[in-house]
């Protein structure tokens, strides 16, 4: 791709073939989208429970004359804008619609009204940008200006391992799709800007649960039993160290513990211990080997300390690996809308994202959508109760999606 757009009249951008991108968002739509995002923010729903969210999206799409289809799970939906000619594959936009089980600690008028629920990862922004792009493209389609059909995918349960993407794919959301794009809020990037990276942009993320068992006994006589607390401590410290020596360090395979629990009295060696954590990996081949490597390392350390181990390795998501051609499509789209200086390189994150499952089937790319208020010295990270997004990011996202749809339809 990498086409250099020319400046057109009235702030438009002229593409090859004399096709002009529409101008900025109308004020009324911009205001409506901000209100829609705030409504979602006030009513967050966890994965596979997004019934109100699904109904709100469905109602707005139907009001625009579209025909959304709710997914078989009862939450999430898919909607085509334009008429697919069944010849040219469609470009798909994906948004995740679920929230997190944490309290919203912000003091804003649109603070969550649901206890211990918050859109602290920006999914309300993702949803609103895809909805807004769908509304803009539907209006273009009514004017005969949409060259090819576009599919909107509003996916539930992104925060629930292994993610709702697999169920959405199984329900057929990728039928007829040739390429897919998405955005993810990034509080390190200023609103109005995006971050791009060809190749891996997120990491694999799995969940690990381990139980250790032994006969237990008196702390005065650990030699007569299995010293289970020591065994658990050795698993916690030595398994990550073993893994670091059994894979290429460039793969970034990292086991990090989040919970360890055992015992109830200071003078009693317990009979049971539980550990849980996450396994993250930068590299796709190493991620595929990770379960066997972890099982072997845990068994080795547990056996050395005479503990019986049971391992539950829960597959999560592979890394999101951005297709270079689709990444260039996003670069062209942002350049056409806001200029090349609003694009920055971004690093690979250790976070997981189930958008990766779509990329196992079709090429695609995810962009980092800047949500940090320019000039604000405070940067509130994702998955925190005080996280919020500069709502100017909504317009940036809508413009990125709509421009990508129109550019993608122009023959190279």
Order of the strands making up the biggest sheet: 4-5-7-6-8-19-9-18
Largest beta-sheet characterization: 8 strands, mixed
CATH topology-level name of the largest domain: Aminopeptidase
**Helix and strand composition category:** alpha+beta
Q: Roughly what is the average pLDDT, rounded to an integer?
A: 92
How many angstroms does the end-to-end distance come to? 7 Å
Identify the CATH architecture of the largest domain: 3-Layer(aba) Sandwich
CATH homologous superfamily grouping of the largest domain? Zn peptidases
Number of domains: 2
The number of strands is 19
* Uncertain stretches: 1-20
Q: Provide the CATH top-level class of the largest domain.
A: Alpha Beta
Order of helices and strands: EEEHHEEEHEHEEEEEHEEEHEEHEEH
Number of helices: 8
Rough shape?
A: elongated
Q: State Rg.
A: 24 Å
Q: Strand-residue fraction?
A: 25-35%
The percentage helix is 25-40%
